[in-house]
Amino acid sequence: MRIFSVAALLLACTLLITLPSPSAPSPSPSPSPTQACHSLKFPHNQAYATCNDLLRLNSYLYWNYYPVNQTADIAFRKPKTPTSNWITWALNPGGQMMAGSQALVAYQDPNGNMVAYTTPVSGSPTMKPGNLSFGVTNLRAEYSGGEMIIYATLQLDSTLLSTNHVWQEGPMRGGSPRMHDLSEDNMLSFGTLNFASGTVTSSSSTGGGISSKALLKNVHGILNAIGWGILMPIGAILARYLKVFKSVKLFNSVHPAWYDLHRACQIIAFCLGVAGWGIGIKLGSVSRGINFSKHKNIGIALLVIAAVQVSALIRKPNPNHKYRIYWTIYHHSLGYAIIVLSILNIFQGFKITNGHNYWKRTYAGIIIALGAVALLLEIFTWLVVIRRKKFEATNTQEIGANGGHEVNDASTNV
Q1: Mind listing the UniProt keywords for this protein, alphabetically (predicted)?
Q2: Do 235 and 341 touch, CB atoms closer than 8 A?
Q3: Angle at Cα 378 formed by Cα 224 and Cα 375, nearest 5°?
Q4: I want to staple 153 with a disulfide (CB 3.0 to 4.6 A). Which of 14, 101, 138, 295 is the partner?
Q5: In order of start, what are the domains of the chain with their CATH numbers?
Q6: Tens of pLDDT, residues 57-76
Q7: Contact status, residue 191 vs residue 205, Cβ threshold 8 Å
Q8: CA 69, CA 196: separation in Å to the nearest integer?
Q9: Would you say 255 is a known binding-site residue?
Q10: Is 295 annotated as a binding residue?
């Protein structure tokens, strides 16, 4: 029955992640001749018949298409790009995402020279040089006036004349491209284009609301922060510092108040944590090629330890059992381990998002506040315990003294 109870609890928590996800904003056609790209000039006065203002990441795409040999001269330009960043533009017939794409990458090396190369993005997005599924010639990049530009000639085929394209930017570290930001603009920098007709669509810049992936990311963070990162520490604080009030009970419960509050708080935290973990798995399935192994491994370890800890609510020896002391050590050790891992992984999540300093500072403030409360309660608890022991010792002495007088009086009377 105990095993079934744990399974039922896990099932109930997992049901929280089955809510349907809202659909991503539908792409909208980009405007034509009045776009800003028409007014921009190239450093060497290159001319392109078609251009488009990409509605994300302040970027522009230009091309000339030659139907005779199915080639296209393209230029991808990204204004306001610091020299510490890389940029990329890619074709991806398989989907509107960077993973699985055929990409052109450019960055400025420490010597100030521009580097441009091709990379097939598959699996972990290492962005290492490699050959693409189609021919690329005349590939080069330049940096002028704070603007980075990639030039190339693409050898297309019938499957690539109308296809998906993706563009992106991110930081350089140690001479290598690193993970880009996960802001809404970065996650929605995709669209479709037709080289022959000049038709381009991209994700809407207004009226689309938040994307389904961004919503999942936010819910994942909120559930984990509240469950693992706030309620778990509060539950531990309740258990440790309310024990001095053993006679206080809730709703005529057979257990003291601290026990009921601690158990309720930890069960709710566990359910929220399981739901957040499940959404994290969903995020991983819709973000092929993006792998945050440290964050994921800590999350898995956290869930396993928490599941074992929940079983402690069911398989708990009686207070007088000879193994109760070992159970207590195990229960406390796992509890503190969960709290430490939770806080570490939440800050790891903030690190992954490359920003969101407001929420990071807010959570840090909550943890500091809980730590301050715990410190004050620790002092208060010790004062109560010391005072109680003195009071009990005084009463014992008085009872002993009174009892002795009564015996002497009785002896005298006899």
Answers
A1: Electron transport, Iron, Membrane, Metal-binding, Signal, Transmembrane, Transmembrane helix, Transport
A2: no
A3: 60
A4: 138
A5: 46-202 (2.60.40.1210), 211-400 (1.20.120.1770)
A6: 889 999 999 999 999 999 99
A7: no
A8: 12
A9: no
A10: yes
Helices 257-285/232-241 angle, 10° precision: 160
Q: Are 216 and 283 in contact (CB under 8 A)?
A: yes
State the Cα–Cα distance between residues 228 and 307, nearest whole angstrom. 13
Q: Which residues make beta-bridge pairs with 217?
A: none
pLDDT tens for 185-211 read 777 888 888 998 888 876 654 444 445
β partners of residue 72? 65, 154
Q: In this prediction, what percent of the chain has a pLDDT beyond 90?
A: 22
Is 220 known to sit in a ligand binding site? yes
* Token pair in block for residue 291: 């792998």
**CA–CA dist 156, 252 (Å, integer):** 77
Residue 187 phi/psi, 5-degree rounding, is: -80, -15
Residue 331 labelled as part of a binding site = yes
Specify the residue for token string 């991503």. Answer: 24
* Alpha carbons 309 and 307: distance in angstroms, whole number: 5
CB 242 within 8 A of CB 257: yes
Cα–Cα distance, 1 to 316 (Å, whole number):
14
Task: Please determine, for residue 300, whether its predicted confidence score (pLDDT) is greater than 70.
Answer: yes
Lowest mean pLDDT among 212-216, 302-306, 309-313, 374-378: 212-216
pLDDT tens profile 344-369: 988 888 877 654 567 788 888 999 99
The tokens for 269 are 């935290």
Confidence label for 87 from pLDDT (cuts 50, 70 and 90): very high
Among candidate residues 280, 288, 283, 282, the one with its CA nearest the CA of residue 98: 288
